[in-house]
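Ticket opened by: R.M.
Priority: normal
Category: complex prediction / small molecule

The reporter submitted a protein together with calcium ion and asked that the result be attached to this ticket for the collaborator who will pick it up next week. Submitted input follows.
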Amino acid sequence: MAASKILIVEDETPIREMIAFHLARAGFETVEAGDCRSARELLADERPDLALIDWMLPDMSGLELTRMLKRDKANEDLGIIMLTARAEEYDKVAGLEGGADDYVTKPFAPRELVARVQAVLRRAMRTEEEVVSAGVLELDTAGHRVTSDGREIRLGPTEYRLLHFLMTHADRVYSRTQLLDRVWGANVYVEERTVDVHVRRLRKALADVGADNYIQTVRGAGYRFSTRVEP
Ligand code: CA
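Result attached by the on-call engineer:
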């Protein structure tokens, strides 16, 4: 299997080189950019699997770059990890809302960064799996079927897509806006409460097999799929 390719977008050369060094040692192929402009060129030419994007860049903020990349369908499968400085910690939420898969706070241990990169890549690979299972649920992407212990759970097309997205992105909270973007598509204009309607239908269908509590409401934030059910 070819090594995953990581694009490092960071203007501070020593940090960028340090990251490249550790990623290469962990078996990754790396490409480096010092600003957003060259990052976008490299994205088109090199097709990396994941981009590490620093928050503070000379020509555009890393957050703006992330938003821009995520709006483009060509980057749908691109994993994004944001690098943030401590003082910017409050912006973590904005980073995730902007479409980043994860963030790492500076200064970081190289080992931690490598682990985060591996985790995001693993998660991206999960979305390509044919059969996704979680708890009592099994989702067959080839047959568009969801079963529990061999018993089929009947779902509408939107509920199916919603469940597929949530099962392949388990244990992470998604806001209604993010779910609309990722499940309905970025250019579809539907109201946020549409999400609630479909979540309700999905829960109702899953209740038959006792899996309705996998779809968890996180107050003030959105929804999360988890088989770890809190008491
Ligand atoms: Ca920087």
